[in-house]
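Many introductory courses stop at the sequence. We go one step further.
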Amino acid sequence: MLTSTLARIADESRAQGLTNPAVILIGDVVTLREEIRWFDTQPLFGKRLLLPRPKQQAQASARAIRERAAEPVVFPVIEIVEPPDPERLRRAASELGSYDWVLFTSANGVERLFAALDALGLDARAFGRAGVGVIGPKTAEALRQRGVRADVLAEEFVGEGLAEAVLARGVGRRVLLARALEARDTLPDLLRRAGAEVDVVAAYQTVPVGSEQGRILEDLIEGGKLDVVLFTSSSTVDSVVRLLGARAGELLSRVTLASIGPITSRTLSVHGLHAAVTAERYTVEGLLNALEHHYEPIS
């Protein structure tokens, strides 16, 4: 932002590298700037945050970043696709009411299971008496949009937290876990130890994007066009490291690495990387809160 006179505004704008698009205010209202300014005083103002999430998940996160005066750089490094055995998901969907619990660890799992229900001519009523448990408010919201309220929302947004919440309510005999093809086995293992029969069904899988994205990402980092990389899952860590190849450590050392939680931070460590920021609440909002705290000026 620049405050100047009409006689000098053009020269000073060029000197500071300001270009269109721009908003220009003329008149006495400019004198109120110091009293009413708020946008450019936020801790993340002007920061460029790489958001390596699938396109369908990035919109809400990008909006949240803009609201904090930062600039999102949406850069998908993984794609969400059908699982290798979609028939198994359809079979589970057709038997939904026979389970004591149906568990979801992501909004993607909700979306894919309901797509399977729709293909069968079924809807939310197929859950019958089954209890429904989820990890995270976004997953709960994805269910609410489809007419189902979660009976259990894990207080700690990891598999251990959901297992604890379900066990506190009584695990029952049969449990369906609809999740990504590749995921930690902590949740089903804990439930099985408690005596449950757990069907782990791949609702979707994540696959890496093409290698040409790696060259684009290198250019962004080397050109100083990124300040932060937001990692919202272990799969985004693995995919970014794969894209950057042998130079991953060198390039990522030039930017701030921010992790959505301890599991994702642990994955960074496996690759020899350090999370400068780890969210205490394992959501995008929690991650942005932690990042703001990281950048707040020391008083």
